[in-house]
Every structure is written in structure tokens, then in C-alpha cells.
Amino acid sequence: MMKKKVPLRKCILTNEMHPKKDLLRIVVTKEGDVSVDPTGKKNGRGSYVVKNLETVEKARSGKRLEGRLGFDSETLSPVYDEIIRLIYREDIPKR
């Protein structure tokens, strides 16, 4: 029996390859809107961020997403908040 291929994506914060399911997708639309896409199906240019709270906090203090995506801190502040909220939501054990 053949093994199923696991899709890998590169995290824009760490430059490391991870399985796609271990990452969150950030989408920039044609209109210039930025949002977090937990489903991975929204239209637009997607970038991936690892689901690691320490990495995201370091990126926020070092303004790494701002440099990678070309937006200001004011625009990306809600995006950071949404990423952190989704990371905490994943950590809750499912019943």
C-alpha cells in the first residue's frame, strides 16, 4: 500500500517547511485586504504561518509580517490577534 503524500508549505516567519495542516494561512486579496484563512480556501495570495505562540509573538515584536506582506502595523494588528486566538483555540482539547 502506498503512503499518502503530505503537502508541505513554508512558514514565512521561520522559513521552515511544515505539513500544511500545522500552519495557518494568511490571505491578501486583490482589493488589498489581509485576513487569516483557517479553512485555506479563500481567494487571494496565501502565505503560511506556523501555529506556535512564541514564534508569532516574536514576529509581532520584530514586525516580521509587516516586512513580508508590505502592510503597516495598524493593518496587521488584527491579523496577529486572530492568529493568536486560533492558536489558543487549537490548544483546547476536543471532547
UniProtKB/TrEMBL annotation:
TM regions (residue ranges): none
One Pfam family cited in the UniProt record for this chain: YlxR
Residues of the YlxR domain: 9-83
Top-level lineage group: Bacteria
PANTHER family: BLL0784 PROTEIN, YLXR DOMAIN-CONTAINING PROTEIN
The protein's name in its UniProt record: RNase P modulator RnpM
